[in-house]
Sequence to fold (404 residues):
Amino acid sequence: MALREAGNGAVASADRIALFDAGFRVFFLLAPLYGAMAIALWVPTVLGWVTPSPAVAPTLLHAHEMVFGFAGAALTGFFLTAVPHWTGEPPLHGAKLAALAAVWLAGRIAMVAFGAFPAGLAAAADLLLMPAVALAIFRPLLRAKAPHNLMLLVPLALFWGADWMMQSDFVGWTDGLAARGARAGIDVLLLLITLIGGRIVPSFTGNALRASGVAAAPRTWPTIDYSAIVAMALLLVAEAALGSGRVAGVVALLAAFLNGLRLAWWRGERTLGTPILWVLHLGYLWLVIGLALKGLAAFALVPETVALHALALGAIGTMIFAVMSRAGLGHTGRPLTAHRATALAYGLVSIAAILRIAAALATAAFGALLWASAAAWILAALLFVGVYAPIMLRPARPDGPPHG
Fold:
């Protein structure tokens, strides 16, 4: 049996299953697997082939599971990976990580089988995940003695609050909050893309261009950066408080303009030969497009579902696959080069978004376009899992970093 020296000095088997060594391993596999399953279950429902539980509107349940199930798993994996990297603390692992994965799984079972459990119990199972994630990262953040790091708990609290808005409707405590909760959950993810993507996209691009000897470097403008972040935060507040009306539409158009200015200076045209870089620019481009469409939808110029899927499938979906693939390689000591199947998966996510937008606009071909979009998304997820399951299940390479 092959052995290597682990990061903590212990001897570890290179053949053992490493799924619960670090959060990105388990949650970056759960996210695409569940994302594929959720879409496979949704399409027959929307086409009327399957009769769902009457307790919750199918569209709301679909939105909930893609935002708080699929994206929630990816967000959990990101925070469990980023916080140890930023603080130098060891990652959550072993039985505690397995228990956190079980919490996520319990929430998914409760929602997929909604109606088989008391509504309050299903809500509790689903709402437990974000507090558990916050608890897992709180002590490392506190021990790092950098109080500003605790601000990372804010997006988790906002995401949990958006989930609560949906669950309060599902349980029957409120009426009419679920749709706002879904939009708020999406907006929290978009705010994180603006915050974190606004740092990593130009940074990673600049590093790669310098390493290849290219003189043209990405440029950033602090005033534009801060304004874009503020605009996204205002959009979150406007949609949570007022819904998707004209106020939110104007803010969305402003956010689209500001984020478009940022993207224009990041030298994305120089990354076209490097999939693991251009996918970051593509995800940010979808953010700009989706925000512009959201603004137009507020004035009834395009259907709102067009904007929602440009943002959810295009921006959030692309960025999730981009970050999962990069982290999976980097944190296991592998070269930051996307496999051809991974690059194909990147493209399929955008194809899925385009086809879903087309389905909303071409009602005569709705069913066929919906199936095509679903097939592209599911294939992208399965390609990702096919490439990354061996990476996530095996320990880090001997020449790689010691964390996970």
Q: What stands out?
A: The two ends are 20 Å apart (CA to CA). The longest helix spans residues 178-211. The beta strands are 3-5, 11-13.
